[in-house]
Every structure is written in C-alpha cells, then in structure tokens.
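Model it.
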Amino acid sequence: DGLVTWLRRLRGDGSTVLFPGGLGDHMDHRLVAAAGRRLMAEHPDRLGFYEDRPYASLLEQSTLTAAMVALAAESAEPDASTSASSTVPLTSMVPTEVSGPVTVRLHTLLQRCYPSQIDDLFRSAMDRDLAAGARERVWFAESECPPWLRRGGDG
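Modeled.
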C-alpha cells in the first residue's frame, strides 16, 4: 500500500510511470507489477508495462503477447483496495516499440553496466534478442502511449 500511495503521487505530477510486466521469477518485479495493475484499475493514463528482460526474450511471441495483454484483464479485477465502481474497464493493451533492434554494442554495454547480473540465462536471452532483431517494447492501454515515448517521437 505504501508503494501504491507513493506511485499515486508520481502520477499526480503528470509523470508517465513504467512498470515491469512481472514475467519472471523476481519477486520485486512481481510486487511492482501488482502495484501498477492496481493503479491502472483506477485510471490507465500515463501507465505502461515493459517486457522484463531476460524473461521476455525466452518466451514464444504468442505467450509473451498473452501475458502482457492479460495485464488489462487483471487490472479490471477489483481487489480489497479498490471498489468495482472505481475501476476503469480496459479493452486491451498494445505494444509500443521504444528502441531499435538489439545489437552487439548494446550487449557489451549491458555486460559492463550489470556484470553481476549477466549469467547464462541473460546470455542466452541476449543471443535470442540479437538473432531475432528484437526491440524493447512497452505496453499501454489502447490509445494511452505518450507520443514522446513512441520510437522516433512521431506520436
């Protein structure tokens, strides 16, 4: 509840807040994703969920899409902290590409910045991203992606 309260304040100043999708086994990502779903149920503007790496890289595209789209359905289910009348019905989540293709240069930078986190799982995911020409994506409720975040800012 403290996290949700703090995040509500961020939203109050007009900030766009991005949350992990909670795709992997990291409890911190799952907790923050749950807070994002609670806020999205209140109002979906300026809220996005990014595809957690390396987990997103290891999923088949259809499984990844289903998991990210499910965020809208999960957000529409009221929990103890929200009433059904205070939730906003969401019809869908849509991805926005926010980077160019993953490159060897990016992998090198990641390995320098996060040496303690680059293990065999990350290396395997990075190899898959590189081979597929994967792009970083953030998912928003339909029509809610801020123009400045769209690749190229062409909103």
